[in-house]
Amino acid sequence: MMTVISAFLQSIINGNDPLSRLLFTLFVIFTLSWYVWIYSKSNKVSTPPLPPGPRGLPLVGNLLSLDPELHSYFAGLAQKHGPILKLRLGNKLGILVTSPSLAREVLKDHDVNFANRDVPASARALAYGGSDIVWTPYGPEWRMLRKVCVLKMLSNATLDSVYTLRRKQVRETVAYFYSRVGSPVNIGEQMFLTVLKVITNMLWGGTVEGEKSASLGSEFREVVNEMTEHLGKPNISDFYPSLARFDLQGIVGKMAGLARRFDRIFDVMIDQRLNINKEDGSRSAAENIVSGKEDFLQFLLKLKDEGDSKTPLTMFHLKALLMDMVVGGTDTSSNTIEFAMAEIMNKPEVMKKAQQELDDVVGKDNIVEESHIQKLPYLHAVMKETLRLHPVLPLLVPHCPSETCAVGGYTIPKGSRVFVNVWAIQRDPSIWENPLEFDPQRFFNNSKWDYTGSDLNYFPFGSGRRICAGIAMAERMVMYSLATLLHSFDWKLPPGNQKLDLSEKFGIVLKKKNPLVAIPTPRLPDPSLYT
After folding, report:
1. Residue 50 within any structural domain of the chain
2. How high is the mean pLDDT in each 10-residue block of the chain (531 residues)?
3. Other Cβ atoms within 10 Å of 119 Cβ, number
4. Residue 71 in domain
5. 3 state DSSP class of 368
6. Residue 308 included in any domain
7. At what angle do helices 251-279 and 187-204 cross, to 10 degrees?
8. Are residues 19 and 149 in the same domain?
9. Do 13 and 137 fall within a single domain?
């Protein structure tokens, strides 16, 4: 057989006719191509596969199977397909991460690569094109915004300087609840109004004072709830970018309308502060902030004028930061307070222990001050346990790799939308004993878990470079509010409500599905402590 092949090749090589030359050329091309294919195959580095995941339909992928309660739906998918999986969301690839080790790879080991955001269309409409600290891409502009927030606006020194604002609003809330003794009150709504007043007073001196404050606060809460709901809602414009200009679900239009309501307030406040700044140019911004002579808006306006020419703070940045503070600061803190109060009321022994600690530290002839907070380890444990069961952002803010990389042995393509399910991780029975049980004791006098995001078993505020910038503000507001509510009042459900509802409603910010309505009863002997 080999003799026949050899003779055939010899005849092609030695032949002078056109057919022989053609066959010889084809033989050489085939031989070279074969050698190149063999060589490339032997030296090729195998690319990891994409993560596993449920099968989807043509064109739409897994979009039609999404459940509105994404955090629990994603947790269920992880139990079936594993701690890392993919979802085809139209033209977008979604990656779900549901284990501490994989979360560490995303948020720590490959932190820089995953430090960007896949900005939804609704966020661009809300945050002035994504000019805020939440959605701005990682880089010099983001670092400038982060520095303004963490080192200037939300530093411990600055927060100390505006304690009187927090104290005033919390004491007004106590007086309101005292006026409603024996009657049902909506705790979440009232605490939202309290936090809103604190933040707006810090930003520009407040806009919700007087007789209309309650109704205006309720309106603000409705707007903020709608905003956070739209931010967490699956949007066709995100999954099919070519269709984004049509806004088929109307989400961008609705969000833009809501944003304009805040923008009008921002414009009024900015004009007022520009006039004040013209009249008072003698003191520096930092001096006025610390002395309480200047609000954050005045500080930001001066920073805009005096800022770095390489990465300037623009008016868009300034307004986007105001939006972050109002939207991100109010709903998150008030929802945490509401969840904590609901869990405490559902566990009378927890309420009793927290109140005993408060009585020991504060006493019943005094009112709670922020200086007492560091002496309340059990109440700190209550807050930590609340954030374990009900993390503020159950899926964090989605991350987006700037380059294709490998996580958990799987390929994560550039531009994917990566969800880290902190809600599921913090309820994982392999990590937490009785994970669905509200038990503050697991955090009591235990320094293992904090809010820094260093332990990826517990990271309610995220981890890595994009960790929440407002942790210090949130901790102060939630702890001070909880301590005051529990020290000043006993709480019980209205008659006829035998069982306390603890169910959740998904959004980019986690909420109680049904409002917490409870009846306050004074527990301090001196009525003057409530005025």
Report:
1. no
2. 53 57 56 58 70 96 95 98 97 97 98 95 93 94 91 86 92 96 95 91 68 63 87 92 94 94 89 73 46 73 83 92 91 96 97 98 97 97 98 96 97 97 98 97 91 97 95 96 98 87 94 96 96 85
3. 19
4. yes
5. coil
6. yes
7. 40
8. no
9. no
Tokens of 517: 């309505």
C-alpha span between 118 and 138 (Å, rounded): 12
Distances (CA, A) of 228 to 81, 90, 294, 374: 29, 23, 30, 32
Helices 315-323/140-147 angle, 10° precision = 60
Cβ–Cβ < 8 Å for 480, 44: no
The CATH number linked to 285 is 1.10.630.10
**77 and 85 Cβ atoms separated by less than 8 Å:** yes
Give yes or no: residues 35 and 178 share one domain.
Answer: no
220 and 316 belong to one structural domain? yes
Q: Helix axis angle, 187-204 relative to 213-231, nearest 10°?
A: 90
Give the whole-angstrom CA distance, residue 346 versus residue 292: 40
Q: Which residues of 67-92 are buried (b: 16+ CB within 10 A; e: fewer)?
A: eebbbbebbebbeebbbbbbbbbbeb
How far is Cα 89 from Cα 443, in angstroms, rounded to an integer? 38
Residue 8: count of CB within 10 angstroms of its CB: 11
When divided into structural domains, the chain yields a total of 2
Query: Where in the sequence is the domain holding 21, given as residue range(s)?
Result: 2-43
Instruction: Find the radius of gyration of the CA atoms of the chain.
Output: 29
Looking up tokens 């709903």 gives: 331
Q: Which residues pair with 97 in a beta bridge?
A: 84, 420
Element housing 123 (H / E): helix 121-126
Q: What is the DSSP letter of 57?
A: B
48 within some domain: no
Choose among 493, 408, 501: nearest CA to 103: 408
Same domain, 400 and 280: yes
- Tokens at residue 279, please? 């009249």
Same-domain status, 440 and 522: yes
Closest CA to 135 of 154, 149, 115, 156: 115
400 known member of a binding site: no
Q: What is the DSSP string of 272-321?
A: HHHHHHHH--SS-HHHHHHHTSS-HHHHHHHHHHHS-SSS---HHHHHHH
Q: pLDDT value at position 275?
A: 79
Residues 405 and 458 in one domain: yes
> pTM score, two decimals?
0.88
The pair phi, psi for residue 439, each rounded to 5°, is -140, 90
Does 286 share its domain with 342?
Answer: yes
